[in-house]
Design goal:
168 residues, single chain
Length: 168
């Protein structure tokens, strides 16, 4: 009998109870929701509403709402800072990871180093090995440009309004 723990890519957070999710699992779930929404060409909020409040962790809901509210501005930042790549040619999962991490960086509720590290780990789990370096580079640029002392902020997304929470 093999008692080895499953690798990160084999672990699923979909079946996890919403109240028992770690912050890392909540981020994984948020990336999954953002990815599913992009593939289906629907709002990620539709997925959150469909799954209901007992399935989706409150942190996941907060992150998805935040990204949904600021997607246009965040995507413009990604396009500008990934100048060697056309935005439309970026892997969808990498865009989702970057959107999540950029929202968290601009939200300023967590340590930027932790946010960047988590995003790099998500890229290692869900994308190509080289994606981790790409994600780290874009997020480091965001950190230096928007979070550095006295940096002029062009984009400061407001925290989500709670529209999903009132519908759940």
């Amino acid at each position: 009998m093999n008692s080895a723990r499953p690798s990160k890519s084999q672990r699923s957070t979909k079946g996890s109870s919403a109240s028992s999710m770690t912050r890392h699992q909540a981020r994984e779930r948020a990336v999954s929701i953002l990815y599913e929404a992009k593939i289906k060409a629907i709002s990620p909020l539709e997925i959150v509403i469909a799954e209901g409040p007992n399935v989706v962790d409150p942190l996941t809901v907060y992150l998805v709402e935040g990204v949904a509210a600021a997607t246009e501005d965040i995507d413009e930042m990604i396009a500008r800072l990934s100048s060697s790549w056309e935005f439309d040619r970026l892997a969808v999962v990498n865009v989702c990871i970057l959107e999540l991490a950029i929202f968290e960086l601009l939200d300023a509720r967590n340590n930027p180093a932790v946010i960047i590290n988590e995003a790099v780990e998500l890229a290692k789990t869900f994308s190509e090995p080289s994606s981790a370096r790409f994600v780290n580079g874009v997020l480091s640029s965001i950190k230096n440009e928007y979070l550095a002392p006295n940096a002029a902020r062009d984009v400061s997304p407001e925290p989500p309004t709670g529209a999903v929470e009132t519908q759940l």
